[in-house]
Amino acid sequence: MSLRLVLPTLALFVAPITPVNAQQYPSHTSVYVNDYAEIIDPAAEQRIIGLLQELRADKGVETTVLTIKSRDDYDYSASIEQFATGLFNDWGVGDSTLNNGILVLVVRGDREMRIELGRGLNRDFDWVAQNVIDDHFLPAFRQDRYSEGIEAGVNATVQNIALPFADGLPPQKRSFADRFAEYRLPALFILAFSALVALSQRQRLGDKSYAFRRCPTCRHRGLKRTRDIELAATKTSEGKGLRHTRCRNCDYSEDHSYTIPMVRTKSSSGGGSFGGGSSSGGGASGRW
């Protein structure tokens, strides 16, 4: 089993912290592109929308693109994999019978992304999604060329995942390097898992992934994050919150104000609704 497909499983052993009264997932105003991080050029966004409209009309495949600034602005999940699956199912991307939806999620501030696939797609498409991320999204993202990378990546997603699946074609074959890695990396997974278990015995799982980050003062692991909602968001105005970070080993503390996005409602421009599809966690992730 490849480490790239096993890493999301590790995150399941870390319990998430749920911010009180936080909006769990962003709402969508379009079934095609929701650029809340404002990193897609208007011309590129229109080209992407046109491509996804054509894909939906001709093949019945719902593919949607979402950019956000940080997962911290919403109900924080232990991993982007959990967040993407929950978001996918909350929106209901894809046909409810075929479960053929595709979500492209880019989190600019956290420097991570995910292609989440509907449960109807063969899990071999996970490898294709990983190649699309590595070859088309991440090279541009590492140079802060987000609009270019998203457009190229969405085109590759359509060509290598959406169209073959719609036409009943099998996923492209994995490379020799991928097949070799599948057999050589389980030992690394076991080692990493053992280290995680040993560390978890000393720290509360409830501190989620922040418990494994080093304190900037004492350099020990054991940060804990909580947050207070100072002003709840509404449909017409943003809210305000205060995020607290504390070290369990020293006196380090930091308070950071953040903005809670408005509670969004669907619009008629590029809006509409999804088909009620769901995901079982298939797909791939990338970080830069």
Automatic annotation (TrEMBL):
<feature type="domain" description="TPM">
    <location>
        <begin position="33"/>
        <end position="158"/>
    </location>
</feature>
<feature type="region of interest" description="Disordered">
    <location>
        <begin position="264"/>
        <end position="288"/>
    </location>
</feature>
<dbReference type="InterPro" id="IPR007621">
    <property type="entry name" value="TPM_dom"/>
</dbReference>
<feature type="compositionally biased region" description="Gly residues">
    <location>
        <begin position="269"/>
        <end position="288"/>
    </location>
</feature>
<protein>
    <recommendedName>
        <fullName>TPM domain-containing protein</fullName>
    </recommendedName>
</protein>
<keyword id="KW-0732">Signal</keyword>
<feature type="signal peptide">
    <location>
        <begin position="1"/>
        <end position="22"/>
    </location>
</feature>
<dbReference type="Pfam" id="PF04536">
    <property type="entry name" value="TPM_phosphatase"/>
</dbReference>
